[in-house]
Structure formats: structure tokens, C-alpha cells
Amino acid sequence: MEDSPNADAVNRYVEAWTIGEALQRLSSAHRQVLTECFYQGRSVAETAARLGIPPGTVKARTHYALRSLRTVLSGMGVTG
Amino acid sequence: MRCEHEHDDGAYVLGALSPAERAAYERHLGTCSFCREAVAEVAVLPGLLGKLDAADFAKLLDPTLSEPPARSFGGPPSSAVPYSSAGPYSSAGPYSSAGPYSSARPPSSAVPLAFGRSADVPPSRRRKHTRVRVLTTALAAAVVALIAGIGAMFLLDDGYEHPRQGPTVAMTPVDTAVPISARVTLAGANGGTKVDLTCSYDRNSPSRKSYTVRLMVYGPDDEYEQMGSWIAAPGKEFSMSGVTHFALGAVDRLALVRNDGAVLLSYDVP
After folding, report:
1. Structural domains of chain B ordered from first start
2. What are phi and psi of B156, to 5 degrees?
């Protein structure tokens, strides 16, 4: 079953689960800017307006959010 | 702050900078190794985030974007979240190492291609078409796939013609002077009959001659095929396994034939 479509589906699910789990381990502020800037596809300016925070804060949060995410994923054994 | 663009790397790799900001940042990357390293550290992460389809995940996670997301997702309470919003690197020094991706992924050229935002496509539209799957859909698909996979295994197993292995029998020498003996086992196989053969050349035989032998299998209607050939040498044992397309009940006879055509051993399948 190694290269079957089923294995692919399971792999995709495991990957998705891993990322979801990692995101949950971030602070809500970090998760929020990743959700806005990546998953919702919003710009820094749009995110800043929606969240009512300065654009510089959005940038700083994405900066630190990605570093937290990297640490969390590394702790989960994901090396990228 | 070591660089005025110090915090731009995250928004850049996420594709959240405005076109003008992005262009400026890319120009800056050409002159700032500090920021290049910063981008390299996180460049792989959007690809990983993309493993999760998340327009709907985001809703699931954070439907109003004002409530603590973990609650609606059934995750750990916020007190269990290991990192403060200040981030783990704020005091530890984020740029002490180059990170694993700095050399593999030159940021100034590769990253904008991979993760950059195209200026003319609205980001929400650009992302929507690739983010139709939701976590629950992925889960359901995986469960279905697992069940289907297990089912297929059982089906495969049921459809498989279980080996009906017969006894191991000695082939009958045509002539008492034949220095070769062989034992064969026939078993029903998927698609035909599996034949295992072990052939020995008597080391005490006065004959010291090696010769090529062939295993022939005879089926219905004078059909036959060769299953293998090898050189039989004094004192040597040879083993082979092969499958003939003849079904187990259709195999009429096996014969070990010398290269000059002389039949040395045969086995008439009962």
C-alpha cells in the first residue's frame, strides 16, 4: 500500500493534522496573524485593519509566529 | 532593532507584504545578509502551512477571530500554550544560527517565486481555489481511504487463489544410470501453478560430466513450456521455483531433459 492513493491520502491527513496540531500550540495572537496573512490571504495592512493593531505589530507577530511555529514543528519531529 | 526590516521576513514569506513593500524588501535583501538569513530560517514554513487546507480550518479554529480559537477547536486551554506572544526568540537571539535552509534556498531568488504574492491577483481569490478541502473532509477522506484500503486487502485476499500445495515428490528416473535426482512440489498459484524443484547430482556417481538440463512442463493438448534451465554438475545441488500458466489440475507432466533431448527424470502428475 506504500504508493497507493490511500497511502497518499493518509499522508496528507497526517501532514494536515500535524500542522493543525502545531498551530494549536501557538499563542492565539500568533495563530491569528498566520490565519489572516496566510490562510485568509490578507495583507499586512488588511490584517492590521481587521485586528485593530498597527501594521508594524502585524509584521512583528508574523515574524515571531513563524519562529514559534518552527520551534513547535521541530519539537514534533518535523524537520521541514 | 538590528535592521529596520527585521520583522518583515514573516510577512514576506507569507506573501502578505504589499507589492511596493515586497519590492523594497527584495531590494533590501540584496544588501542585507541578516535579513536573508532571517528569510531562509522561515522560508520552508509556508509550504508546511499549506499542507493544511485552511480557509475552513481558520473558521473552525477561529470563527469570529475574536474568541480564543483553541476553545472552538477543542484544543488545549490557552494556559497550556507554551509560547507567549512575545515569541521564544525575543530574548534568546533569533539570528544566532543561520538555520537549516539558508544554504539550500537562496532567499533572494527562490523565495519570491515560491511564496511571493502576485500583485494583480487578489490574495483571497488566489488562495480560495487551492483551499477547498477542510480538515474534517481530510479526516473523512483518510478514514474512507483506510477502510477502502483494508477492504481492498480483504477483497484481494478473498480473490486470491490460496496455494494448494501438494506433497513433495521425487521425479522418476527414466534410466537407473541417471546420476541426477530431483524432488518437486506443485502448488496452485495465482495465475497458474508454482513449481519448486530441488535437483541433486549424485557426488558418488561414476559420471563426472556436467550438462545442461531443462525443466519442462506439459499441459493439456500437447502444450508445453520450459520452466528453467541450469547446469547440473557432479556433487552440486540446484534449486529453483517457477510458475507455469497451466492450472494445477491441468499440469500433466514434468520432465527434466538433458540438452541432447534425452529425458532424465519425469513426474506424471496424478
Report:
1. 8-83+99-139 (1.10.10.1320), 165-268 (2.60.40)
2. -60, -45
